[in-house]
Design goal:
Elements: E1 14-19, H1 25-34, E2 38-43, H2 48-54, E3 58-61, E4 87-90, H3 92-100, E5 104-120, E6 133-146, E7 151-156, E8 164-167, E9 172-175, H4 187-198, H5 207-222, E10 226-231, H6 235-248, E11 252-258, H7 266-277, E12 281-286, H8 288-295, H9 301-320, E13 326-330, H10 335-340, E14 368-370, H11 378-387, H12 392-395, H13 415-434, E15 443-457, E16 460-473, E17 481-482, H14 487-500, E18 504-509
Parallel strand pairs: 1-2, 1-3, 3-4, 4-9, 10-11, 10-13, 11-12, 13-14, 16-18
Antiparallel strand pairs: 5-6, 5-7, 7-8, 8-9, 15-16, 16-17
Length: 522
């Protein structure tokens, strides 16, 4: 299989983030793109020669969990500082830059984790337009203890005399704090100053241009052939399908495998949108009985996933074989998938997760792969969906696991239990939407537990199921905090589920954060 190349023109003006293992590397890239400059993440040990070849407008060295003086600590090619390309080191990245250019890094006598008061001593370059007294987010145990005479300080905190520095001869800057996080009040201004005043970028990155160029490339590559796209109900596959529908119209065939594990009314919503609005050739595979047969008696979460994945492949392949002239398979791969799978040419070397095709579709299906969203982050995909006239209900839909309700139905999955879960889930989501909090939360759903408890309904004793309500807030889904929903909203959800969903007499609210818990229960 081959990938659809990144849209031409996207990378004409770009900034590269060297990733030293920071949990914020992707956030840095997103913040740069928000300033309308295209940004990519690359491996920390990329050579200076390769950087010169790529010719970015600027380079950002990310933070990281290591100490620069520790054995096997990740290093950058020191020659990159001599390329004349502006460099901004953040936290660990600042320490590397200062160490490479004559400074001294030591374990801080007073570690800083969290908000800190920062005093700007030089309001030029990075700090143009920034308040002299500002609040920043620190997260470090080491810090720059001394700088060489070629450096000058720009800002300080009560425990960090070099909170920001600038090299006098080279276009190299350092920040001990994290400008990319929202807790740094004027971090966006600091990053924008680096991009505009130091890197001299013009800010031409626009999603609309990306869409137009990608549509042109798809038409050119596909020609008169047919493209197959698997629909899952999620925003990624929906935006891919909408983009392809705009690009090639009737040459697109979509396949929706109804595995009986979808949310309430989800199949109907997908059918309405892609047959009525986009006029797509939509194939719906009714396979609920087959999936339930495969799941009978299975309680292990991983075995559930394995069986669902295999059955999905079999169903998808059987339907795809019926579509004449199909040469390409479209997939909703996003930029984080490319980074974390190690699939990017210059990207981070460590594979965080295996790269997977739509529903785990194997290469032996024989299609060429089209991945028109592989350069975008999730928030950019949502914006693109709105530009392509997808309804907000689809664009802002909360993430849904590939195995569907099967991993929210703990224990054995049955048609009866799925019916209970589906109704309870619809009440949870419906009430959160009615309260105007759906967009303010990241993921909300119900979980049916394999736990029965005693209850009283009317004058009768019951011994029925327990439903757990899960609602979280997160920026990146790597970490998450439970949503502090209003008590009256939780009360309405509980009352409605117990009164309206037969077989449930107890509702609990999950107040676990990630880590140590995961967002999904299985």
């Amino acid at each position: 299989m081959t990938d659809l190349p990144a849209a031409a023109g996207v990378a004409e003006e770009r900034v590269l983030v060297l990733d030293f293992g920071s949990q914020y590397a992707q956030l840095i890239a997103r913040r740069v793109r928000e300033a309308h400059v295209y940004c990519e993440i690359v491996r920390h040990d990329i050579t200076a020669a390769r950087l010169k070849e790529l010719a970015p407008a600027g380079i950002i060295l990310s933070g990281g969990p290591s100490s620069v003086y520790a054995e096997n600590a990740p290093q950058c090619d020191p020659e990159l500082f001599k390329l004349g390309i502006p460099v901004l080191g953040i936290c660990y990245g600042m320490q590397l830059a200062c160490q490479a250019l004559g400074g001294e890094v030591q374990n801080a006598s007073s570690r800083e984790y969290g908000r800190a008061h920062c005093e700007v001593t030089d309001p030029t370059d990075l700090f143009d337009g920034v308040q002299t007294q500002t609040e920043v987010w620190m997260s470090h145990g080491d810090q720059v203890a001394a700088i060489a005479e070629d450096w000058e300080p720009l800002a300080k905190t009560s425990t960090c005399p070099f909170a920001a520095v600038r090299h006098k001869k080279l276009p190299v800057f350092g920040l001990q704090f994290h400008p990319e996080v929202t807790h740094t009040v004027e971090g966006k201004q600091v990053l924008t100053n680096f991009l505009q005043k130091v890197c001299k970028t013009s800010g031409l990155w626009r999603l609309a241009d990306f869409a137009d160029e990608t549509i042109r490339q798809v038409r050119e590559r596909v020609g008169d052939d047919r493209v197959i796209c698997g629909l899952s109900g999620g925003v990624d596959s929906a935006v891919v399908a909408a983009l392809l529908a705009r690009a090639i119209g009737t040459q697109l065939s979509c396949i929706l495998v109804d595995n009986g594990l979808l949310r309430k009314d989800e199949e109907r919503a997908i059918v309405d949108e892609f047959t009525n609005h986009f006029k797509a050739d939509l194939h719906v595979v009714k396979a609920e009985d087959l999936f339930l047969e495969q799941l009978a008696g299975v309680v292990d979460p991983q075995e559930k996933r394995r069986r669902i994945g295999k059955t999905f492949i079999d169903c998808f392949k059987a339907e795809a074989d019926k579509i004449e002239g199909a040469k390409y398979l479209a997939q909703g791969t996003l930029y984080p998938d490319v980074i974390e799978s190690g699939a990017a040419k210059d990207g981070p070397a460590d594979t965080i997760k295996l790269h997977h095709n739509v529903g785990g579709l194997p290469e032996e299906l024989g299609f060429e792969l089209v991945e028109p969203l592989r350069d975008l982050f999730k928030d950019e995909v949502r914006q693109l969906g709105l530009q392509l006239d997808l309804p907000e209900e689809i664009v802002w839909r909360h993430p849904f696991p590939g195995p569907g309700l099967a991993v929210r139905c703990l224990g054995e999955v049955t048609k009866e239990k799925l019916a209970v879960l589906r109704e309870a889930d619809a009440i949870v989501v419906g009430e959160i939407k009615a309260a105007g909090l759906y967009r303010a939360t990241s993921q909300a759903f119900a979980v049916l537990l394999p736990v029965q408890s005693v209850g009283v309904m009317g004058d009768s004793r019951t011994y029925d199921n327990t439903v757990a309500v899960r609602c979280v807030n997160t920026d990146d889904f790597m970490t998450a905090d439970w949503s502090h929903l209003p008590h009256d909203l939780l009360a309405r959800i509980s009352t409605r589920i117990i009164n309206e969903v037969k077989g449930v007499n107890r509702v609990v609210y999950d107040i676990s954060s990630k880590p140590p818990a995961t967002i999904e229960w299985e």
